[in-house]
Design brief:
2 copies of one chain form a homodimer. Chain A is an alpha/beta fold. Chain A contains 22 helices and 30 strands.
């Protein structure tokens, strides 16, 4: 593929299928391009000599060289049209035409052809089924939408063309500007990851935003986005969050929905800030595109009205930020500058008769305080407060102190002009205190993304060959599942398991029991019996003398329960002191988009009833493994809460990492559960294991 | 007090302290009244003969009779001014003047005087420190704010005058109208409960909304609001939700903050719909003021754009509503009416070229479906879709089927005119699909409020006199606390406790133990030792033979731990089978605004680590007690999850009700904890008790 950046800075744009027939998409695109594009527009259509006053060429070979081809010919002609432009030297193509994979098998076949041609010629292809692309830098609107974007520093991709149309209409009215806009369409060649990568390198893009219904390659997206978010914030609406939404998205785009849990984890690991509505998307983007991140979390609130001040304080309380504790000098300075009735503690209530000067003084004093990382100016309209002058003062103080300031100038019309001035200087004005604080909160979230250190996955020294051999045993199982008889898989990856072995006669059971200190546990080992305890297939606290009989008993019960069951033997296992330890669970299942999704929780009711779990997309390093443990609500139980024995958290962290390595090394493992992983004061022990293997992947 | 409704329908309004001095509040009010008021405006001021062209009277005795007096004289003159208007026969007074309890002790004294005069003359007094009141019915704007409200069916109270100013400016621009508006000020006489009661009886008020920082008498508010919400929805922003916000509210209004938990429970029990921002307040109010409640929870989504359709579906998934399952006939009818590419399952995607007619057909078919309780029309702007005609069609279908329909016509300017038409017919248009669904959700919430049945508190037959005697023992304790030695308090209220008694010699301990079947538990009884187990003051599983020694041992350990401790004896208690039962906790603490707040949770980690509790304001009946149990996350554990013994939930329900009665009967009980209340398969047993008593209340 050629450099993607060229897609957004062509000197000539060809419209393949240009026309001036009223109502035709080929006319709308040509007209939109013709209006403002800094370069040359080249209509191509064998049946026209002129389109909208521009010279029209019968084919691309007779046309001047085209940097970007916009294809609007009927579906059956698309692939040939692309081949033709490619032969003529064009590297960038936008396919507007619909009727591909979104419409059934014929369309899907056509899309495969399209992809093959793109590969053959190494083309950048947007679409098919795209509204088009815009690049305000060069005045290019190569879409058939009714609106052009205003220039700005937000780059915007959307999997829904209608979403772009809807948003632009409103954004233009609000004065929100864009750098590049892309309607992704069916994403047959270029997808969200490509544009994130491209815009991450674009110095003119301050924020990347997007509306996505699915991410094709979650793994790759996380990797690329993680790097990009070091420099450029990404805010995404990923729809299909709920079951009903996922179903709707799947019927809309034909994509297989990955699990919301995987998206949540993957996007979080990628450093993406997630918005849940159009409003949130732009509330965040407006703050991120114009303001620096706060250095500390203390917020100062400056207002002329008690009620709105309290509402703002509540919003701060709801956010990751906190109300700044003012230094004594700040209180003193405010007391001096403000009237007696004012509240000089945070929120600063400069009271109802506050004019611009008093607001300015309060804001200046607040921003001088080192405990203040950001500020919200909240005002009710009054006779003495001139909003346009207030805007100037806010801009001045914001720039003087280089701290983020947002405003909530309440009231309708009155605030409009002030809002426009503020916007020009990057300061978003919000309708509601809670939205203003959400804007600041997005800045703090992004600061945390930038500042975080994510440990790279550690490579432990493991016995991969032995593990491969064990996993391959699944070939011998009809259901491709392995159970407790494969505990040596964990051993191969350095995860501690209790002493013991699987035996197939009672005499050997006794020998093993005698080699183990203290009592033992016996468990039936059978691929056909999954609830061992329920059928009496488990005996705990068995002494050496009793082992022989217990063996016979356990086997008899299993036979009795299911005469046809294959019995591989009986596991004789060291008995752990469960009173002094905590049962945890580490699991994995493979997500179609993101790959292996690790899960951690405490055993029993905590996972099953309280659903108190944390997840990460593997592979992960130490920092993520540790966060998984800290994130669950029940984590104090591992730390020794309520007089419990504290668990060896470091050992759990290491186990999670080793399992991360295992499931990454073996894509054939579809699901895996270590349940329980018992964590004591010193170390952990995996007591039981189940996994499902895709034997075709072996 | 005279009828409060007269406050909103005066024939003459007197302005006590009217003036035409520029910038004076007394001028602003006179001018606002003069502008549109249907009745007579009577300025009163001894130093003017005319104010803004109106005849001005030197005092109220020489003025015509005044129905409503608006007082704007300086603070020291307010009380006399009120007395004068009362003497002249006025029953309704709004005190605009500030400088009362919000400013310190002198102001507080002045406010007490004001309240005394109001009581003496049986006056309705709004304020002091109020922006004023409005009643659009009679064109009355008796405030000094810059804007008059438009007529409408929303009645609005606010504890912040600035909030009213800010909101009206914006609401006027949005075309949102009001019936009455009240700035509550310091609420020295009339408070939120009075206006809720009044508006509940006002046929012209469809929705009551409010901004409150505190509720003075939570108990009374719950009682009144519960009744009002049977007919009229109430939506409130109660600020000071967070710790920081509560502190800010308290410094703003001087009120003692009750706990957020109590507000949450009290408002919920009252049937109030709570909003967390200005935006939510009006998003809900707009739906509630113009639309019927949905009969079922199924939502139909009709759109011309896949992406926004998916976003809407997600919003439905997040709400209490669900996507409607279309009947087969609906699918058939849609398949017939829509083009082939359309999605006829819910969300209905009528695709990009849908015109008004197709939208109308889709909406009609959807609303005909009995599974559809409400609908959202979501549209992206297109060349073929005329928004104003779409509005007409939506109005027509909504009225035809009498089901609630909201819209999200995306795009800026384009939607404006349509939005106005829709509003006239009660249909709110929202910026964002998530807000549109939130509007429908508010309707469903209100339907649930109307339909709920709240059981009245049952009066159990209890031994109140004995209980009074036991509670009074707190008089003998320095710290006003009672412990396990007061278990008979629970017995007096019919709550089961294990067999046993408190003894003070080892011989008697043995006698008691012998009278109890099985082993016993010994517990030291001392007001000075609160963590009995930690110091070895508890012995479980003691056999009859061992009781003597165990008694000596427990006492010795207590003495050893704290030689000065008062030891009341040792409790010899039946030992319960805790393996087969579940520990729960029922507690109560008294909230300054709402009174007794009951708490329920499972014992141990569930309350302390997971904070998994439910609360209600007492007294409560069976339905609330049952809900308390159902609301906790761990509730499946009581129902027999994971092979546990199911607990006797009915017995817990009864215990909660009996405790509700106990704490209601004895306001002197400030705090009470039954911990644990052990719930077995058949019945419950209270094992331990602590309470704190306000001995002055005895």
């Amino acid at each position: 593929m050629g450099r993607l950046s060229e897609l957004f800075e062509p000197e000539t744009v060809g419209v393949i299928g240009a026309t001036d027939r009223e109502g035709a998409v080929g006319r709308a695109i040509t007209a939109n391009l013709h209006e403002e594009f800094a370069g040359e527009v080249v209509p191509v259509n064998p049946s026209r000599e002129e389109v909208l006053g521009l010279e029209c060429y019968p084919d691309v070979t007779s046309a001047p060289p085209i940097d970007l081809a916009v294809v609007v010919v009927p579906p059956p002609a698309v692939v040939e049209a692309i081949r033709a432009v490619a032969e003529a030297g064009t590297e960038n193509v936008v396919v507007i035409t619909a009727g591909f994979s979104e419409t059934g098998s014929e369309g899907a076949a056509r899309e495969r052809e399209l992809r093959a041609v793109a590969e053959e010629y190494d083309l950048n292809v947007v679409g098919p089924n795209s509204l088009g692309v815009m690049a305000t830098d060069v005045g290019m609107n190569a879409t058939f939408g009714p609106e052009s974007a205003r220039p700005g520093s937000i780059s915007f991709m959307s999997q829904s063309g209608a979403f772009i149309t809807a948003v632009l209409d409103w954004a233009n009215e609000q004065g929100i500007g864009f750098q590049d806009v892309v309607s992704l369409g069916n994403k047959s060649v270029l997808d969200e990851t490509d544009f994130v990568r491209e815009w991450g390198e674009d110095p003119d893009t301050d924020v990347i935003i997007g509306y996505l219904e699915g991410i094709d390659d979650g793994d790759e997206f996380v990797e690329v986005a993680r790097e990009v978010t070091d420099e450029t914030p990404i805010v995404l609406v990923k729809s299909g969050r709920t079951d009903a939404g996922a179903q709707a998205a799947s019927s809309h785009t034909g994509a297989i929905a990955g699990s919301e849990r995987a998206y949540e984890a993957g996007l979080e690991q990628a450093g993406v800030i997630r918005a849940h509505s159009v409003q949130e998307l732009f509330d965040y983007a407006r703050a991120l595109s114009g303001l620096p991140e706060p250095e500390t979390d203390g917020v100062a609130v400056v207002t002329n009205a008690g009620g709105p001040g309290v509402l703002t304080t509540d919003a701060v309380g709801d956010s990751r930020l906190g109300m700044a504790d003012f230094a004594d000098e700040t209180i003193d300075a405010l007391s001096e500058a403000m009237p007696e009735e004012a509240n000089v503690y945070n929120p600063i209530d400069a009271i109802g008769d506050a004019d611009v000067e008093r607001f300015g003084e309060a804001l200046e004093i607040a921003l001088s305080d080192p405990n203040v990382g950001s500020a919200v100016v909240v005002s009710a309209p009054t006779a003495v407060l001139e909003y346009d002058k207030l805007a100037e003062t806010v801009i001045e103080k914001r720039e003087e102190f280089d701290k983020p300031v947002v405003t909530c100038l309440m009231g309708g019309d009155r605030a409009r002009a002030a809002e426009e001035v503020l916007r020009e200087f990057g300061i978003p004005n919000y309708f509601d205190p809670s939205r203003a604080v959400a804007g600041l909160d997005a800045l703090a979230r992004y600061r945390d993304v930038r500042e975080r250190t994510v440990d790279a996955p550690e490579r432990f020294d493991v016995d991969r060959e032995r593990a491969r051999e064990i996993v391959s045993r699944a070939n011998e199982r009809e259901d491709n599942r392995l159970g407790i008889e494969s505990m040596d898989l964990l051993e191969a990856y350095g995860i501690p398991t209790p002493a013991g072995e699987i035996v197939d006669d009672p005499g050997r059971a006794r020998e093993v029991a005698e080699s183990i200190e203290g009592d033992v546990v016996l468990k039936i080992v059978s691929p056909d019996i999954s609830h061992k305890s329920d059928i009496g297939g488990v005996r705990v606290g068995v002494s050496d003398e009793d082992v022989y009989d217990a063996y016979e008993d356990v086997v008899a019960r299993a036979r009795n329960y299911q005469p046809e069951a294959t019995i591989l033997g009986v596991q004789v296992q060291e008995m752990l002191d469960l009173e002094e330890s905590t049962e945890t669970i580490v699991g994995m299942n493979r997500d179609p988009q993101f790959g292996p999704l690790l899960l951690f929780g405490l055993g029993g009711i905590f996972v099953e009833i309280l659903e108190d779990t944390s997840v990460r997309v593997a592979p992960i390093g130490e920092s993520d493994a540790r966060e998984m443990i800290d994130e669950i609500r029940a984590t104090p139980l591992l730390r020794g809460a309520r007089g419990r024995e504290p668990a060896d958290v470091d050992a759990i962290v290491e186990t999670i990492q080793r399992l991360s390595q295992l499931v990454t090394d073996f894509p054939a493992i579809l699901e895996l559960d270590v349940n329980p992983l018992v964590a004591g004061r010193d170390g952990v022990q995996a007591i039981d294991l189940r996994l499902t293997v895709d034997t075709e992947e072996l």
